[in-house]
Design a protein that fits this description.
There is one protein chain. Helices cover 39% and strands 18% of the residues. It has 13 helices and 14 strands. The structure holds 2-phosphoglycolic acid.
Length: 419
């Protein structure tokens, strides 16, 4: 049973406070922390921050920490950690708000993940196996990773409007091979950029970025095995009914203002020119009509991140309206492990792809790696193949592959619908 829960404030990969929890049972201590990202709107769970501008610029999370130490711990002590849905429900009942704004999703999620780890510990099975049991799923799949190799949008200081260009090693045979491909191409890309644009990087548009990636891939022997995914995050550059591809440029010419129809044409041309297999948030999060048009074009996967915000009601609407065909799951947008399992099921029942995603603010917690294997999501997006908090996830997938041995099924070419 759960004997003690102790929370503290730590810093995430951006240097911004987040919540860490140590949850104790008779089997030992189980630690988890909450990731954090750019809030994308009113449909996601609420992150509780102290708001005192004099302390961490308002971002400290001592209220969320205290909610765990004083309220959540009282409600959960004595519970069986294998009963994930009851633990999550107890926190939801204690919170009483739709968006978890009373206790804070950063408090609730950190405890939910720690309890999930404790549940696995109680059963003495690996975390991914416990998650698969919770989801009632017999299959385990190592996901195909999408490695971010060029960042733009709000995540970078360059002029690139779209948020990320990712490489997806669908042709790898195993995950370790996929990771090697990702790492090698990442370093080739660094060399290509230095050769063409100098050591201080470059300012290119989406075509320019894709050309650099294409060249980096061509310097390896993996050309046939690597596909490309785009994370457009188009809400960031939508102005009214137009999309401003120069939104970060100081000298705007106005020539790069595109209508929804022109954006569709642009995506079509990019997909024809480059091996693009997936586009995330190609339009503004409320531009349901244009996303729908693009989803009906060709075989490219269309992923809803900001469009869906991992919210079951938004997902349901998108399923009904046939708006996109893949869910990007960010666990802290929904808030508990149980609800994350449910929305993944909702997406899979609709025959959608599922991408388990990191946040821009991550910690060394590798939970999403196990989640992705346990839910057989088929796809994971955890950033570049470098930096500790990103590699925490990819390295955990290496360990899981090793542990599963011959049973390790790498999603690879089955990335959209693994067995
Ligand atoms: P975030 O985005 O800033 O919302 O966490 C991360 C991502 O989608 O890769």
């Amino acid at each position: 049973v759960i004997t003690k829960i102790k929370a503290r404030q730590i810093l995430d990969s951006r240097g911004i406070p987040t919540v860490e929890v140590d949850l104790f049972t008779n089997k030992g201590m189980f630690r988890a922390s909450a990731p954090s990202g750019d809030p994308s709107g009113m449909y996601e769970a609420f992150e509780l921050r102290d708001g005192d501008k004099g302390v961490y610029l308002g971002n400290s999370v001592t209220r969320a920490v205290n909610n765990i130490n004083e309220k959540i711990s009282k409600a959960l002590i004595g519970m069986d950690p294998t009963l994930q849905s009851q633990i999550d429900q107890a926190m939801i009942d204690l919170d009483k708000t739709e968006k978890k704004s009373e206790l804070g999703v950063n408090a609730i999620l950190a405890v939910s993940i720690a309890a999930c780890k404790a549940g696995a510990g109680e059963k003495e099975v690996p975390l991914y196996k416990h998650i698969a049991d919770l989801a009632g799923k017999p299959h385990l799949t190592i996901p195909t990773p999408a490695f971010t190799v060029i960042s733009g949008g709000k995540h970078a200081g360059n002029n690139l409007a779209i948020q990320e260009i990712m490489i997806v090693p669908i042709g790898a045979i195993r995950f370790d091979e996929a990771l090697q491909m990702g790492s090698e191409i990442y370093y080739h890309l660094k060399a290509v950029i230095t050769e063409k644009h100098g050591a201080h990087g470059c300012n290119v548009g989406v075509d320019g970025g894709l050309d650099l990636v294409k060249e980096a891939i061509s310097r390896t022997e993996y050309t046939e095995k690597i596909s490309i995914a785009l994370g457009a995050a188009a809400s960031n550059f939508c102005q009214g009914t137009k999309y401003d591809l120069d939104f970060k440029s100081p000298n705007k010419s106005g020539q790069n203002f595109k209508s929804g129809e022109e954006m569709i044409e642009m995506y079509k041309e990019l997909c024809a020119e480059y091996p693009i297999i997936s586009i995330e948030d190609p339009f503004d999060k409320e531009d349901w009509e244009h996303i729908k048009c693009i989803s009906n074009l060709g075989t490219c996967q269309v992923v809803g991140d900001e469009l869906l915000m991992s919210n079951p009601k938004r997902i349901e609407r998108a399923i009904q309206e046939n708006t996109c065909n893949a869910l990007l799951l960010k666990v802290n947008q929904i808030g508990t492990v149980t609800e994350a399992i449910e929305v993944v099921k909702q997406a899979k029942d609709a025959n959608w792809g599922v991408v388990i995603s990191h946040r821009s603010g991550e910690t060394e917690d590798s939970f999403i790696a196990d989640l992705s294997v346990g839910l057989s999501s088929g796809q994971i997006k955890a950033g570049a193949p470098c930096r500790g908090e990103r590699l925490a996830k990819y390295n955990q997938l290496l360990r899981i592959q090793e542990e599963l041995g011959d049973d390790a099924f790498y999603a690879g070419v089955e990335w959209r619908k693994p067995l």
